[in-house]
Amino acid sequence: MRVRNPFAEATTSLIDIAFILILFFAISLIFTPETTIPLVLPNDFTGGDKVIEVGDELLVQIEREGAVFVGGELLAPAEASDSLLFELCDRLFADLKIQKPEARVLLRADSGAVWDRPIQVMQAVGRNGIGVSIALNPRNIAGTTP
Known about the structure:
By secondary structure, this protein is of the alpha/beta class. It has a domain at 57-140: Nucleotidyltransferase, domain 5, CATH 3.30.420. It is 36% helix and 16% strand. It is built from three helices and five strands. A five-stranded mixed sheet has the order 3-2-1-4-5, with helices on one face. Helix 2 (82-99) packs parallel to helix 3. The radius of gyration is 27 Å and the shape is rod-shaped. The model is unreliable at 49-54 and 138-146 (pLDDT under 50).
C-alpha cells in the first residue's frame, strides 16, 4: 500500500501559483524608453569672452588645454595637478560662500577638455555647499532653436 504525502501535493500547487504571479507581473510591466538630451558642449573658448556677468553667479571656465579661469582671471594653468586645482578651488569657493552665501557658480567647459578638470571644480563647489550651473550652447540641445 502506498502512503500519500499531502505536503508534496500542496507544494506543487504553491509553485504553480508563484510562477503564474511572476508571469502576470512580467507581462503587466511596462517598459518605457528613457528620454535623453544630447549634450554637445561648446568648442574652443580661447577666442571668446572670459567674463560673463550673470547676477551672483561666478563664471568658472575650463579651456581645452586644461587651464581654469575664474571670472576671467587664471586660477590654475593647464600644467597644475588635480590636487592643486582642487585645493585652489576649495579655498576660493570657501571664501565665496563666506562673502556671498547666495552665490552660485556657472561652469563652462570646452568639449575637448579632459573631464577630470570640471569634476574637480564641481567637487570643490559641492563641498562648500554652493549651487552650480553648467553652461551649454542652446543650439545643441534637442528641441530648441538658436
